[in-house]
Description:
Blueprint: E1 2-10, H1 14-25, E2 30-34, H2 41-45, E3 52-55, E4 63-64, H3 72-77, H4 80-89, E5 94-96, E6 101-104, H5 109-121, E7 125-128, E8 132-138, E9 141-146, E10 149-158, H6 173-180, E11 185-191, E12 195-196, H7 199-204, E13 212-219, E14 222-230, E15 234-236, H8 238-244, E16 253-256, H9 263-273, H10 279-283, H11 289-300, H12 310-321, E17 323-325, E18 329-330, E19 338-343, E20 361-363, E21 371-372, H13 377-390
Parallel strand pairs: 1-2, 1-10, 2-7, 10-20
Antiparallel strand pairs: 3-6, 4-21, 5-6, 8-9, 9-10, 11-19, 12-15, 12-18, 13-14, 13-16, 14-15, 16-17
Helix pairs in contact: 1-5, 1-13, 9-12
Keywords: FAD, Flavoprotein
Domain RsdA/BaiN/AoA(So)-like Rossmann fold-like: 6-391
Cofactor: FAD
Amino acid sequence: MTIACDVLVIGAGAAGLMCALTAGRRGRQVRVVERANKPGKKILMSGGGRCNFTNTGTGPANFVSANPHFCKSALARYAPADFIDMVDRHGIAWHEKELGQLFCDDSSKQIVRMLLDECADAGVVVDVGCEIHGVVREDEGFRIDTARGRIAAQSLVVASGGLSIPSLGGSGLGYALARQFGHAVLPTRAGLVPLVLTGSHAERLEGLSGVALEVEAESGGQSFRNAMLVTHRGLSGPAILQVSSYWDAGEPIAINLLPGVDALAFLREQRAARPASELRTVLAERMPRRFAQRLCERWLGDRPLRQFDEPALARAAAALSAWPVAASGTEGYRTAEVTLGGVDTDGLSSTTLMSRSVLGLYFIGEVVDVTGWLGGYNFQWAWASGHAAGNAA
């Protein structure tokens, strides 16, 4: 027996549920199939369980894509304020943490519940634990073979996500479907992911796991000022996660350990005011003591400031302003928050997210080559792209 619907959405994540409820509100008969055992798994774990559901400062500049203009249309037509309105309608309390990042006061479960309630009100059917076995294009739309049987749909929306955090349901299904229907898929890699250090780089930081400090990290022409965390395998923290999306293997990463400070002027001032003080003592007033001590032992010199002549002081200042990090790689998809690359936007309409070559086929959310910064931007892309497709499918 074949189940018929107007719109079939593959993936019950942020983008898929938003698309489904939007299409359902238009009177479309919508069904969502999800391979995981529950919907919205990535939403549930996001933001430490409180879901960083949007960012009030969202704009095209906050996204990485081969076509930086592609996201503009969807983002303009579904803004953070639109999602906040839905959150407020459902009585979900929220707060701004920093840099425009909005979180639930209580639990990310509230966001999933809200989306499912909106889907239910719109008559959307959501099937979980349902694998896709195959998709065939037919005259009247698509035939989808699933673990629950065959589904016929006029429109097919692929919202299956990327490869990040496979334990939450991430897979390459969306990319396989894109290729099946003639779409190019740009190379994928882990984004918003911790960096791994090996060899002497790792040895120099041994024993400092858990130490955090504010830095400005730069790579690939982008810089981010936020916290850096030393881990037992390398570096993490918001500044590192952000810059990882712009870093290519083998490329340098420069970390300003005194962001907002003219390092050379600062050291000269300290040398004049307290020449007998150890450099490590002075730096410990600006960063964690253990980190300052290791920095002086392994990079800057471990002696009183009066023993630094001008060239030595300049070298120390240069190292503090652009502390070189040579990462050997990343922690990979296992811990990556997003997948960079994906379905080439050249083959999609920026207005509807529909395929330019296959009528009724849509790609939305993380499966598309649009990746946001850390801080709620990826959720806003999910809402915006889902809304755009849901108004057209």
